[in-house]
Amino acid sequence: MGESVLATAFARRGGALFCEDVPADAIARSAGTPTFVYSAAVIRDSYRRLSCALTGVKHRVHYAMKANGNRAILSLLRSLGSGVDVVSGGELFRAQRAGFKGHDIIFGGVGKTGQELREALKVGVKLINVESEAELQLLEAVARELGVVAPVGFRINPDVTVENPHAYIATGSKGHKFGIPHDEALALAKSARSLEHIDLIGLDMHVGSQLATLEPYRAGLDRLSDLAASLTVAGAHLRYIDIGGGLPVAYDNGDPEPDLEAFATVVAPAIKKMNAELIVEPGRFFSAASGVLLARVLYRKRSGGKDYVIADAGMTELLRPSHYDAYHLIESAKPNGRDRTVVDVVGPVCESGDFLAQDREMDDVEPGDLLVIHTTGAYGYVMSSNYNARPKAAEVMVDGARFAIVTARESYDDLVRLEQADPEWRDA
């Protein structure tokens, strides 16, 4: 099971935490802190388990790179056979730089610009998932300008009930900004048939992340199946059914791992009924558990009856605790044998919202100790910022007994590289 691979990837030997066969402390000494560290073994295992679960249905995995667009991760997943899902022109550029070709790429996102649509069509992406009538009309105009036919999927908002840890990661219920309302999709599809440069070949949904049950998939697929049948009668030739991502990740030791066999049991019959190729877009599922964030304890402090651990990483490196009220396991890379304690783990940023954990029972650490913040491979580095003029962290990939710095730590010069010391003033 994937749990055993994960346990092996981040295990203790003689009390010290290792990432695969490399001591966390050795990485910190070489790369400095804060640093994100990714396990290639965990990513490979996650991809293998999902692929095996879906062997009974024709499918293609397209990694949702918004979770983590690191080039080393993209290249690894491409080597395993994955495609990629992008949501901006910048992600499209990064995907191509990592070796993905047009047929490997699906372009999604609720606010695509005309320039981004133009770039997607020039690359020859597999599918552009359209989210509104206005976007469809803009895509028709751009495709006409380029003299091509746009391969289109309709992202449907299936209006299903979603249970997940935070409202910000639910996307498939009524009133969300994402997708075409399911009861408007048939009429829009009929009008799309009159557009010379639009080829409607897919349906798409993404109901949210960290889904607590499989029911949203079942309910959403029921609605997509009914819509697909109506579209087929209306003359559409659907080739792809894209069900997005949403597979949950265990952030706490007590959280269950997703039941991939049960997931396949829900998904496969519906896809076979629609006689289409399944597209799945996991992001967090591949990258979250593959990563840890290494940070160094700077100070201990007591104030207002609370004990604080002040680290050299905070909300600028990992926004999820303050933005989503998210839990991440935090432990010492080398516990010192002292009793556990209850502390707030905070960063150096000048904001009260700069914390990694509050009222957390954990190892009793001292200044200079190395902290390991777990399950930070998704929505860690990609959501980091330069607030307080803090250079972004380094990123490291571990593969067995070797490791490499795959993203260099930013320098102070990087912070001001785009500023114009002597700007060219222009008249209005």
Give the helix/strand class: alpha/beta
Q: What is the arithmetic mean of pLDDT?
A: 92
Assign an overall shape: globular
**Total E-strand runs:** 21
Which spans have pLDDT < 50 for at least 5 consecutive residues?
168-173
Describe this structure in words.
The strands form 3 sheets. Strands 4, 14, 15, 16, 17, 18, 19, 20 and 21 form a 9-stranded mixed beta sheet that branches. The longest helix has 19 residues, at 215-233. This protein is of the alpha/beta class and 428 residues long. A hairpin with a 2-residue loop joins strand 2 (16-19) and strand 3 (22-23). The chain has helices at 2-9, 24-31, 40-53, 71-80, 89-97, 114-123, 133-146, 185-192, 215-233, 260-274, 284-287, 320-324, 412-415, and strands at residues 10-13, 16-19, 22-23, 35-39, 59-64, 83-86, 105-107, 127-130, 150-157, 180-181, 198-204, 240-242, 277-280, 291-303, 306-311, 330-332, 341-346, 355-362, 370-374, 394-399, 402-407. It has 2 domains: 2-38 and 288-415, Lyase, Ornithine Decarboxylase, Chain A, domain 1; 40-284, Alpha-Beta Barrel (TIM Barrel). Helix 6 (114-123) crosses helix 7.
